[in-house]
Design goal:
With about 300 residues, this protein is mainly beta. The chain is built from three helices and 15 strands.
Length: about 300
């Protein structure tokens, strides 16, 4: 379910293909489209970097992780189809459709597609497809595939999750260089979908904090989610009871040290406060305002 579309702001920095310095501020509008399930949320603003070789086995921040306790007792969501809109500082720029279902007794699957829309599409063309397979019992990822189609290139990402490591391979077409795998030797590591499933399975009492390692796009991050309390959110003209969450994201570098994200300032997310705990809205503060993801519709299969 849930947005497995990944933001990659590396495309928009001073060395990126769509730099603001080149006079293309509307290119920023594609960021939210490529946000996806961690809390959909936890993926906002991903910058790619490679990993290989052995890592420091015991950095200090490992002690803050809460993921070793396993999934909580809150029931899994039903099969459903969700539609979201994405935008920048209140301006809608993209849409996405997500199908969350269970194809076998032991797995969940997410099929998601999205695209820039309206005026933003004339300025920045992006079509995106994401497919993820997850272990139903452990809420741990198995594999995901993502394809991003731009005006002048296509980017394909394959990520495999094994017991003690993650291997990601990103291929750009056309390219003069063969793709090189990123290997991250650590466990447990969540993808965006299972991070959201795992967090929503927890009690989520006011003040609770969950901390876990998430592989978003093609690199690892430390995601910290804190329950701020209960709230009321207006979605599609209706008031919705919600669980409000604070979202923090740190890069994990090659030496397993945490680094502040240069563009991501902070984020907020709202889950429906009911038996489904559906992501209602996500906001991420960036250096030019904020990007948002908001639920348009949901249909239970």
């Amino acid at each position: 379910m849930f947005l497995a579309l990944v933001i990659r702001p590396d495309r928009f920095g001073p060395k990126g293909q769509e730099s603001l310095a080149e006079g293309k501020p509307w290119a920023m509008l594609s960021w939210p489209l490529r946000a996806t399930v961690l809390l959909l949320m936890l993926t906002l603003l991903v910058t790619s970097h490679a990993f290989s070789g052995d890592s420091n086995p015991s950095p200090d921040w490992i002690g803050s992780l809460t993921s070793n306790k396993g999934p909580g007792n809150f029931s899994a969501p039903p099969a459903m189809r969700l539609s979201y809109r994405f935008g920048w500082s209140g301006i809608e720029a993209a849409t996405a459709d997500i199908h969350f279902f269970s194809p076998t007794r032991n797995t969940f699957e997410v099929d998601a597609s999205g695209a820039t829309s309206g005026f933003s599409r004339t300025l920045f063309l992006l079509d995106l497809y994401h497919q993820a397979t997850e272990n139903k019992a452990t809420l741990m990822p198995i594999h995901f595939y993502q394809e991003e189609k731009y005006r002048k290139e296509t980017v394909k990402t394959n990520v495999v999750f094994e017991g003690d490591q993650v291997t990601g391979l990103r291929e750009k077409i056309p390219s003069d260089h063969p793709p090189k795998p990123n290997v991250f030797k650590f466990s447990p590591v969540f993808d965006l979908t299972t991070a959201l499933l795992w967090v929503r399975s927890q009690p989520l009492a006011d003040g609770d904090t969950e901390s876990l390692v998430v592989w978003a796009s093609n690199a690892p991050y430390l995601a910290t989610v804190t329950v701020l309390g209960r709230d009321t959110l207006r979605i599609d003209g209706k008031n919705q009871n919600a669980i409000k969450l604070d979202l923090k994201l740190k890069n994990i570098d090659k030496k397993m040290q945490l680094k502040d994200h240069k563009l991501f300032k902070g984020g907020r997310g709202w889950l429906s406060d009911d038996d489904k705990r559906i992501p209602l809205r996500i906001e991420a503060d960036i250096f030019i305002g904020y990007v948002f993801v908001e639920l348009k519709s949901v249909q239970v299969d």
